[in-house]
Amino acid sequence: MEHFGLRKNTWLKQNFNIDNFIKIEIIDNVVELVTKKQQQ
Looking at the record's lineage, which domain of life comes first (predicted)? Predict the structure, then answer.
């Protein structure tokens, strides 16, 4: 399975400044962890 946000992250790096990108990365990681816990 493709990593959760790879294509989206590439797009974000091109379109957001680095502070916004870091915040979105943290949110993505939290969402990914929650999703994995729900699937178990």
Answer: Bacteria
